[in-house]
Every structure is written in structure tokens, then in C-alpha cells.
Amino acid sequence: MIEDILIFSVYEVTRHLKQVIESSIEPMYICGEISNFTHHSSGHMYFNLKDPNATIRCTFFRNLNSKLDFKPEDGMQVVCFGGITIFEKTGQYNLNVQSMQIQGQGDMARRFEQLKQKLSQEGLFDQDHKQPIPKFPERIGIITSPTGAALQDIRNILTRRFPVEVLVFPALVQGNEAPAQLRDGIRYFNDQGYVDVIILTRGGGSQEDLWCFNDEALAREIYASKIPLISAVGHEIDFSISDLVADLRAPTPSAAAELVVPDKADIMIMLNAYRKRLDIFSENSLNHFGHLLTIVGNRLEACSPQATLNVRQQMLDHLQDSLESGLSYLDTCTEKINLISERYAGLLSYRLSSRLTLMYQRLENDNNTMSISLDRKFGSFKERLALAEAVLGENSPGRTLSRGYSIISHEGKIVKSVKDIKPGNRLELQFADGQAPATVDELPVKKT
After folding, report:
1. Which CATH number applies to 131-262?
2. Helix (H, G, I), strand (E, B), or coil: what is residue 296?
């Protein structure tokens, strides 16, 4: 009887199948073409994934699809990762998508990581190998498409910031032939040795468009470059192998132009500040050394042979004046005595004979005393004069000349400064053992 048969409801069968499928089939990657795509207002995505022979319904929930970096569209070939389930309401099996990527990108990402790991282990990314970018390049080599917007952006920024000479090596920047042309550009600039820095660049694009910059041979050519190289490929979010090997990575072509040259306005501000500091330093230095020169000049003048000779000459003149004064006083006394003798000789001869005799005796005594005093003074004067003559002899011009000095004169006048002569002047050089002529060929350059 039918009452004795175990009967299942549709829900129970569907639920059982759901449990069997979900427990026995692990999540998998499925590739296909998107069709009937719908992005619901709830944020969930619904679409079919099909190939020429079959179709599977897919659900991509909002909390998972928010991480996508592209917008799915009908006809797009994608690879979805997810688990198979059954939607109990309709009884249809469904793929609950956990992640999605454009077909081919998964393989490209895998190859990118493999090459990245290989080159990293070989040391092509090491910072120790990277060359510094010159601060003030005179010539820049650019490897890019001559018709691309990247070249125009770089030219515009260089013209505004710091005009330099730009040499362009035209090359394809996408496609199978692009890596070889990019490598030729690097070798060309290295062989010529004319530029100071190289920029390898192109504008934004898809991962396939930028794939030529992930070429292994290109990476090794960048590593071998003797000229510093900047890689500026795509937009800021794009990253390529050339960025990792290059001496400097710029997020965009425009950023490369700003990194490779300074801003001339900033340089002018810096130079003006340096010039003001240099002017102040120069002025202070000139004042300081001018003061020192004055002090040294005064000391040299005070210690010069001529100054010493002048002092000794003054001492000699003083001694001579003292001697002449003493002799004059003696003559005056003698004249007075003679005058008195003449006046009173007749009238007072008798009365004053004894007094005159006494006076003569006193005078003779005074004369003797004065003679002795004068002799002593003359002896002292002679000793002082001999000492002065010895000192004068030691400091005389002739003695100074014998020590290696010379006296320079021009037209009978002694030359005391380099300002007193000019090129072409004929000079007389006085040495200890004779004279010699000389001609001024040139004057020393004034120090600033």
C-alpha cells in the first residue's frame, strides 16, 4: 500500500541534494562568458556564466564583490572561484562566487610573481645597486611612444620647472615587439653616453597593455644600465618589474618629470639666500683682515730699521746739544773774567792784588773742578755716543742689507708699497754688496 512507502517532499529532496552537493564538491575555479548580468540595488550581482555547451547561474554577494577593481559586463570572459549550491526555491544549482578576475589575468599574475621572486633572489632589486639620480641633469633621454600623451606631459612639466635638453628614443610601449624596442633604447643611450638620466615611460592601460614592462630581458637591460634610469609606467596603482629594477620608480609620467629636475623658482630662492650670506661673510672678512693688516703695519713700522735709526739719531742730537751748551757756558765765564780784569787792572791793582790772587786761585780751582767735571761728562757722553753708534751700526741700513734685505727705489724715491709701482716701471735694487736694475712685469692680483 502507498501508506507504507516512505515519501519525501520536494523541499526535502532539494535540501538533501543541496547538502550532498555542498559537502561533496569543494569550491572550484570556473571560466566562462558573462551573460544576463544584473547589479541589483542591494549590491548583489546576478549573472550567468556560459560556454558553447552549458550555462550555470551565479550569485556574487555585495560583501565580496565590493573588492573588485573592474566592472563586470556581458560578454566579458572571466574566471570565478566559488562553491556549488542549490537554490531550493527553484531547484536550480547555482555558483556562489567568492572572487572574480578577468580571464588571463590570473596567469599573468602568477607569471609576474614568479619572475619577481626569481629576479629578487638574483639581487636585481637590491638598493645597493641603485644609482642616484643627478640633481641637475643637462640632458634627459626618454624611451616611449613619440605620439603618446606621456611624452607631451613630461615635456610640458620640464619646460615649466627646469628646461633641459630632451632626446626621445621612439619605441612601442605595448605588444609583443615592445620589449625589444625598449631594450634597444636603453642600449642606445648607454652606447652614446650623451644623456645624464633615462626615463622609461608610458601612460596608463590594462594589465595586458603594460605587460611588456614585465619582460625579463628588459629587466636585465635596466639592471645593466650605467646611466641612472627612472621607470614611470601607467598610473600610481600600476606596478611592473621595470619599476622594481629601476634606480627610481615614479608613479606617473608627470611625476617622473617632477622628480628628475628641480624647480627653477626654488633654486633661485636658494641662490639668492646663499648670495646674501656670502656678501655678509665677505664684508665681515674684509673688515676683519683690514683691521689686522693695519695693526701689523703699525707694528712693522715701529720695528723697522728706519724707526730705530731715527730714535738713535735723536739721542745723538741731544748729547751734542748738551756738549755744546757746556762749552758755551765755559766761554761765557772766561769772557766775564777777562772783562773784569781789564776794567779793574789799573785802579785796583794794588788793593785787589791779593783778592785777585785769591780769585785766580779760586778760578783755577773752579777751572780744574769744571775741567774734571767736563772730562767726566765728556767721557760719559763718549761712552753713550759709542754705545749709540754701535746700536746704530747694528741697525743701520747697511747692516740690514747684509742680512738679506734690499732697498727698492724708483726714480730716486724709495718704494714702500706695491701701489707705488706699475707694470713697466724700472726699479733700482740696493743690496749689501751693490746695486742691480729690475723691471716690473706684472703686479700681484688683489685678493678679495
Report:
1. 3.40.50.261
2. helix
Q: Tell me the DSSP string of 169-236.
A: EE---SSTTHHHHHHHHHHHHHHHT--SEEEEEE----TTTTGGGG-HHHHHHHHH-SS-EEEEESST
CB atoms within 10 A of CB 249: 18
- 10-residue averages of pLDDT along the chain (448 residues): 71 82 84 92 93 92 87 88 86 89 71 89 93 94 93 92 92 92 96 95 84 94 96 85 94 92 79 79 80 76 68 73 76 76 61 68 76 78 78 72 81 81 84 84 71
Count CB atoms within 10 A of the CB of residue 248: 19
Rg (CA), the chain: 57
Distance of CA 338 to the CA centre of its chain: 99
Residue 176, C-alpha cell as written in the block: 609583443
Residue located via cell numbers 650670506: 277
Query: Beta-carbon neighbour count of residue 87 at 10 Å?
Result: 14
Give the dihedral sign, CA 203/109/259/195.
negative
- Tell me phi and psi for residue 296, to 5 degrees: -65, -40
Superfamily holding 7-103: Nucleic acid-binding proteins (2.40.50.140)
Residue 317 has which C-alpha cell? 742730537
